[in-house]
Amino acid sequence: MAATKKIVMSGIRPTGFLHLGNYFGAVRNYVRMQDEFECYFMVADLHSLTTHPDTKELKGNIQRVLAENIACGLDPDKAAFYCQSHIYETSELYLYLNMLAYKGELEKTVTFKDKVRLQPDNVNAGLLTYPVLQAADILLHRAELVPVGKDQEQHLEMARNFANRFNHRYGETFPEPQAFNYGEELIKVPSLDGAGKMSKSENQMATLYLSDDDDSIRKKVMKAKTDAGPSVPNAAKPDYIQNLFLLMQLVSSTEVMQKYDAAYNACTIRYGDMKKQLAEDMVRFIAPIREKAEAIRNDERYLQEVMEKGMEKARRSARATMEQVREAMGLNYF
Ligand code: TRP
């Protein structure tokens, strides 16, 4: 018998547009994982209600997230790609886990404290129990591996605590979910203004979105900060120049990279030329993804098929887990 594949689960927020940082930091890993593991990738539409109670744009946002991820190579025939709200079992498990989560620990969560600061007029209980819902997403599939960035480590730690508490009280039911990445340092994609990384909400002019048209890509790259160039051979590169090289490394050929690196070291580099080259390589990288995502987004029938297929796969797994959960809890009166 073939060894069973480990189960992978991750959630994607349906707010904001996918950018180059999301691609190299997350999506590329999902695409790689779907060949090796049993994957559940979920659009976290219920989570978004904690901060975006207005649902007018939700459907469009979900369609965009699905289309963009599929355009990047996520394959709905390999992974279960589904919407959180389609899996009612999530809400049931969330309820049970809420009884195992303590007000004190929820109030101490960094993301909760951030949100309280950002939206003091809407500190709802859903916001407080956000990590419990996330734990339900993960434990519902008895997932062991969760590909997420550093910002989600605390939530994952809490999911492990809830799983352990459940197991301890009602009997071994859930494996402990662990953060996963492919060994290498998580790739951080620097923003074009030399400050921090590309981000969904901040510095839009310094962030390259997978939906940017060719001219915006060129404009953004050409605006990136440079200076008069090094005055001594083999000088250390300032951060904002190093960032341009990092971006080049992601989308340009090795020869191109080496050419500009050598020019830098010889003090003959012309940043205008380097940025023109980088802009064209970016366009060549982003344009096909953008066009594919647009085509998928315009194909409602296909998107509906994707959602249905994902929903069915995710429900099958959720139902099996919930039967075990109710059994373990003694909620089986017939
Ligand atoms: N909270 C995650 C984020 O902000 C999204 C998410 C929801 C998630 N449910 C999940 C991530 C389950 C991993 C596993 O990005």
Characterise the protein shown here.
- The chain has 334 residues and is mostly helical.
- The chain has helices spanning 20-36, 45-48, 58-71, 88-98, 103-107, 110-118, 125-128, 130-139, 153-170, 214-222, 239-251, 254-265, 271-297, 300-329, and strands spanning 7-12, 38-43, 80-83, 145-146, 178-179.
- The chain has a 3-stranded parallel β-sheet with strand order 1-2-3, with helices on both faces.
- The radius of gyration is 22 Å and the shape is elongated.
Q: Characterize the main sheet.
A: 3 strands, parallel
Strand content: 5-15%
**Over the alpha carbons, how many angstroms does the gyration radius reach?**
22 Å
Q: Helix segment count?
A: 14
Give the H and E element order: EHEHHEHHHHHEHEHHHHH
Strand neighbour order, sheet with most strands: 1-2-3
Which structural class is indicated by helix and strand composition?
mainly alpha
Helix content: 40-55%
Query: How far apart are the first and last residues' alpha carbons, in Å?
Result: 36 Å
How many strand units? 5
Instruction: Report the mean per-residue pLDDT as an integer.
Output: 95
Shape: elongated
Which distinct ligands sit in these coordinates? tryptophan
Which residues form runs of ≥5 with pLDDT under 50? Answer: none
SSE topology:
Blueprint: E1 7-12, H1 20-36, E2 38-43, H2 45-48, H3 58-71, E3 80-83, H4 88-98, H5 103-107, H6 110-118, H7 125-128, H8 130-139, E4 145-146, H9 153-170, E5 178-179, H10 214-222, H11 239-251, H12 254-265, H13 271-297, H14 300-329
Parallel strand pairs: 1-2, 2-3, 4-5
Bound molecules: tryptophan.
